[in-house]
């Protein structure tokens, strides 16, 4: 499912169902980039927001492992809100997209799979700077 012309999309994660419980696997054929970093957000206080930045090169794949949260995406022209609440679906976010994570349910866990290791210079942390960046491209 494409969200906009920048290739933001919901990707189904293979799900193996059996009576002992379900299993989902994320491998390099699940997402369109090599995995360089994995981290997760948890114990997020009620009303807190995460994100609030864009990346110049890095691509991310977000999964709600538990609970739910909203991902507010902005490509500099249009804003889209996606609710993640299924551990067998993830949101691919390409570079050059502003993202904010909000409305975390109690006990929610957000898994982030990234195409690059942490490099501070890749971040755009000011929204006005982000708008200037996308308008230059």
Automatic annotation (TrEMBL):
Q: Which CDD domains match?
A: cupin_QdtA-like
Q: Which residues cross the membrane?
A: none
Q: Which Pfam families match?
A: FdtA
Q: Which Gene3D superfamilies match?
A: Jelly Rolls (2.60.120.10)
Q: Identify the residues that the record assigns to the Sugar 3,4-ketoisomerase QdtA cupin domain, covering every copy.
A: 7-134
Q: Which InterPro entries match?
A: QdtA_cupin_dom (IPR008894), RmlC-like_jellyroll (IPR014710), RmlC_Cupin_sf (IPR011051)
Q: What protein name is recorded for this chain?
A: FdtA/QdtA family cupin domain-containing protein
Its source organism is: Flavobacterium ginsenosidimutans
